[in-house]
Amino acid sequence: MEHPVTVENLTVAYHQKPVLREVEFSVPKGKLIGIVGPNGAGKSTLIKSILGLIPRASGEVQIFGKPYKQERRRIGYVPQRESVDWDFPTSALDVVLMGRYGHIGWFRRPSSKDKALAMSALEKVGMADYADRQISQLSGGQQQRVFLARALAQDAEIYFMDEPFVGVDAATEKAIIALLTELKHQGKTVLVVHHDLQTVTEYFDWVLLLNIRLIEFGPTEEVFTAENLQKTYGGRLSLLQESGNLSAFKA
Ligand SMILES: Nc1ncnc2c1ncn2[C@@H]1O[C@H](COP(=O)(O)OP(=O)(O)OP(=O)(O)O)[C@@H](O)[C@H]1O
C-alpha cells in the first residue's frame, strides 16, 4: 500500500524537554484522520516537525517514501489561526493565490488560470464576495475559510490542518467537514488536529491518539475506545465526562 506519510522514531524537544517521544506511524492514503489528545500533548508539534518547521531531536519523516523537501509541493497546511499575523496587509484573494506559488514560482505573476482557481476555491468556502477584503477585516471564522481556500487552491495530496474548527460556527464546521470529505473522496489524505471528542466517530475514518507518545493509531471504530481514551487523557477523562464532552461516546 502507498503511504503518504511515514514517521519513524520521532522525538522533538523544546529546551531539552521532550514533547514528543519516539513517535512512529504510517498514514494510509485517502483517509480523513483525527489527531486527538489533551492540551500540550504535542499535536501541533507533531505537524510542525513533519513539515520541517521545527527541528527534530531524532527521527525520520517520509512523504510518499521520499524526504519531505522533495515532496513539499504535495502537502497543504492550514496552521492554527492564532499563529498567523492577520495584520499583514493583504487581500483574501492574495492569501489564496499564495497557495498557487508552489505551481507558479514566487517571482512570476499569477496567470489568469491561477486567479480563476483561487476564485473558485473562495467560492467553494463561501467567501467569493470577500475576495478584495483585507484579511485583517474578516471575522475569525471567515479567516479560517480563506485559509482553507488557500489549501484547496494548492491542489495538494496531503493536508495537515491544525484545529480548523476553532472559532467557527456550527454551519461553517459542517461545511468544512463536507469539503474535507470531498477531498478524501478525491483520494487525498487529510490529517486534522481535533478537540471535540463527541464528533470524532462522525468525522474521522482513522484516529491518532497522542500524549507525548503515540498511544494508538488506527481505524476509529477500533482505536477510539474508553480504554485508549483513558490512556490518552488519564485523570482528565473524568473532567471531560462531567463537562459532557464525552456524552456521545459509547464505552
Ligand atoms: N515554541 C515553544 N517553546 C517551548 N515550548 C513549547 C513551544 N511550543 C510548544 N511548546 C510546548 O510543547 C508542548 C506541546 O505543545 P503543542 O502545541 O504541540 O501541544 P498541542 O497538543 O498542540 O496542544 P493544544 O491542544 O493546547 O493546542 C507543550 O508542553 C508546550 O508548552
Automatic annotation (TrEMBL):
ABC transporter domain segment(s): 5-237
Pfam family, one: ABC_tran
Source superkingdom: Bacteria
TM stretches of this protein: none
Keywords associated with the record: ATP-binding, Nucleotide-binding, Transport
InterPro entries assigned: AAA+_ATPase, ABC_transporter-like_ATP-bd, ABC_transporter-like_CS, Metal_Ion_Import_ABC, P-loop_NTPase
Single GO MF annotation: ATP binding
PROSITE patterns (alphabetical): ABC_TRANSPORTER_1 (PS00211), ABC_TRANSPORTER_2 (PS50893)
Record has Transport as a keyword: yes
CDD domains according to UniProt: ABC_Metallic_Cations
Similarity annotation: Belongs to the ABC transporter superfamily.
Name listed for the protein in its UniProt record: Metal ABC transporter ATP-binding protein
Source organism of this protein record: Tumebacillus lacus
